[in-house]
Every structure is written in C-alpha cells, then in structure tokens.
Automatic annotation (TrEMBL):
InterPro entries: ATPase_NBD, ROK, ROK_cs, WH-like_DNA-bd_sf, WH_DNA-bd_sf. This is ROK family protein. Belongs to the ROK (NagC/XylR) family. Coiled coil: none annotated. PANTHER family: GLUCOKINASE, ROK (REPRESSOR, ORF, KINASE) FAMILY.
Length: 392
C-alpha cells in the first residue's frame, strides 16, 4: 500500500487489476472493516464507477455479491514519438478495444499533431470503441512539467514549449487528461504488464530517436522537483563528441541514438568499411539504424562494432546510476532495442564491470517485454489513476 492513498483509489485499482471481486474478498484484501468497505462500494456504485457483477461462490455462509468496474468506462492512451503516433482506447481493465498507429513528425508542431490525435479518437468513436471517455493519458518525447501538463523546452519538439496539451485535450474531449514524458509512461507500462511487473525499484531505459530513463523508486515513478528526472540522454560521455540537439557537446543522445547511429552508418557505408551498409546504401539511397541491426545479424564486423560502441557508452552512464540508486532491475526499450542481444550484452558487460559487486550481484539487465506497446500501456494506467482519483 502506498502512503496516503484513499480507500476508493485502492479499491478501484484492485478491481482494475483483478476483475470482478466479491465484497467479502475486497474487505479481506484491502484489510478494512466490512461495514466501511460496504459503504465505500455503495458510494462508488452510486457514482457510476462500480457495478454489480452477480453472486460469488459460497464461502460456507450466505453468498457475497460480486462487484466490478463499470463496464462502460473508457480510457484513451496516446504515445507520441519523434516520428509516430500510437493511440489505444481501453476499457476499465485496460484491455485494448481499438488501436491505431501511424507515422508522424513531432516537429510538425502541437496544433498539427494534436489535431491528428483528435481525428484518430473521433474515428475510434465512429468505430464504436467508446461513447464518452473517462480520462486521457498522453506521453510526449521531451521534458514535461507533470504538475502543469505542458512540455518544457523539449529539444526535438520545436513549437511545443509550454503548449497547454492537458488543457486542450480536456476541453476537446470533456474529460480529465494527464501528460507525462514518453519514457515515464513506458516505465509505467512495463511495471503494470511487462517484465518489471510489481518490481518496486528499477530503471527503464529508452533508446530511440532520443535517450531517456524512467525511474521507479519504492513503487512510484520518480519525476524530480520539476519533472525532468531521468534525462540521461544529456549526460556527457565524450567531451570532444558531436554537438547535441540541446546545444551541449558529447551527450549520450548525440553519440548513440537512432539519429546518431544512422549518421555513423552512413559514414561506414560511404567509406566502404561496411559491405552490408554499402550494399543497402546503393539499393535504397540511405541507411538507418535498422540496417545496422540487419547487418550485424549477417555478421558485418563494422555493424557489430557500431552497436558495441553504443552499448559501451550506455553502459558507462548506467553504471553510474546503478552505483547511485541501486535498482533491482534495468529494462532496455525503445526503437533501438531491436539491436538485440549484441547491444544488451555490451551494456551488461560494462554495468557489471564498472559497478560494485553488491549492486550487481542480483541485477538483471533485460529487454522490454511490451516493446512498442509499453508507452500506450503506461498512458492507460495513468489515465485510469486520474479517473479513479476523481472518485474521491
């Protein structure tokens, strides 16, 4: 149990996570007196959050009635990437009822991107995924003031600084909305339904167009005073490295990310040091991080080196975080997770070598289990928590 959580929030989360439960079992699981529990259930039934769900199996006496979340509850989960929009509409148990994914350029600006999100949600309504939404959760690829619901000086999102994302979505859809950065929602999703299920202290590292870290401490996301904790992509790893989008030099994100790897791949293709990349450049006129992954799978030495070099830089940053925070798990996700076990092995090697044995003796470093769904899964959890908070 988290401190200061109301009974209503604990009760609604339990119904979200377990489905229909008898009143008797609810009282046992929540460790509250039966009369208090019954009164709270009746209040939530009256408020439209909870519904009757038939009779429970007999426990030896009078049969208890089952309750469940109102089956009409609907949440919208939105994950904005640098080059994509992912949207899911879920029921109260966070089961997807509709899913949409398309390419989009975050640099098009908030009006264009959020207008498209609204169009997608309108299509979901037309497709009868929902009649009304109870809450919206959205993640964006940049720093966010979680308190204010706005992006703040996001390096790869021109035009988004202080844009009222939460206010606009709330006004447009008539329901509360919550805004977080994309790596935090991925971490939340992975803890809710992925490899970090119920792990209280872990790091979720997203390596994609940008690099970031979602931090779970004592069972809760740690966002920092202003909401920018975990921005590890802007930790310097090379004092003589390339200029980063943030204006500094040699940041991890500038040295190893989707864009950085594509640049390195282009150099290797043009120089002829990588036959696999040279062949792909000749065929397509360009090369990408995916080409590096495929080249490494074919045994191309240069592709393997590029991945290992990047994994070494990530590992050095993570080794410092392990020494500082002593997490019980590190999860690697994002678009570059498809680089697979060459990347993972290098990160593990550096983390285990550079951190104290006490911190790494029981420290798994693993790939995300949810993959590209981590973001929308976490956005749905945030949306449900927001809606449940309204039940107080």
């Amino acid at each position: 149990m988290r401190p200061n959580e109301g009974l209503h929030l604990r009760l609604l989360r339990l119904l979200r996570d377990r489905g229909a439960v008898s009143r008797a079992e609810l009282a046992d699981r929540l460790e509250v007196p039966r009369p208090r529990l019954l009164a709270e259930v009746e209040r939530l039934v009256g408020a439209g959050f909870v519904a009757e769900a038939g009779m429970a199996a007999s426990r030896g006496g009078r049969r208890s009635t089952m309750v469940e979340l109102n089956p009409d509850m609907r949440f919208a989960a939105v994950d904005l990437g640098a080059s994509s929009i992912d949207v899911e509409v879920t029921n109260g148990r966070l089961e997807p009822l509709a899913a949409y994914r398309e390419s989009a350029d975050i640099r098009s600006g908030p009006k264009v991107i959020l207008h498209r999100v609204n169009e997608i949600l309108a299509k979901a309504r037309t497709d009868e995924a929902y009649e009304r939404l109870d809450a919206i959760g959205i993640g964006v690829p940049g720093p966010v003031s979680f308190r204010d619901g706005v992006p703040v000086s996001p390096p790869i999102m021109p035009g988004w600084d202080r844009y009222p994302v939460r206010e606009m979505l709330t006004r447009e859809h008539g329901c509360p909305a919550v805004v977080d950065n994309d790596v935090n929602i991925m971490a939340i999703g992975e803890r809710y339904g992925g490899v970090a299920h119920s792990v209280d202290d872990f790091l979720f590292v997203k390596i994609g167009t940008g690099v970031g870290c979602g931090i779970y401490l004592a069972g809760q996301v740690y966002r920092g005073t202003d909401g920018c904790a975990g921005d590890i992509g802007h930790i310097q790893v090379d004092a003589h490295g390339p200029v980063c989008s943030c204006g500094n030099v040699g940041c991890l994100e500038a040295v190893f990310s989707g864009a950085a790897l594509a640049k390195e791949a282009l150099v290797a293709a043009r120089s002829g040091s990588s036959p696999a990349l040279a062949e792909r450049l000749a065929a397509a006129g360009t090369v990408s991080a995916l080409d590096v992954a495929q080249g490494a799978g074919e045994g191309d030495v240069t592709c393997i080196r590029l991945i290992r070099d990047g994994g070494r830089d990530v590992g050095r940053v993570l080794a410092g975080l392990v020494s500082f925070a002593n997490p019980s798990m590190i999860v690697i996700g994002g678009g570059l997770a498809h680089l697979g076990h060459i990347l993972l092995a290098e990160i593990r090697s550096v983390v285990y070598r550079r951190s104290l044995p006490l911190a790494t003796g029981n420290l798994p470093v693993v790939l995300s289990e949810l993959g590209p769904r981590a973001g929308v899964a976490g956005a749905a959890v945030l949306a449900s928590d927001l809606a449940f908070g309204e039940a107080s």
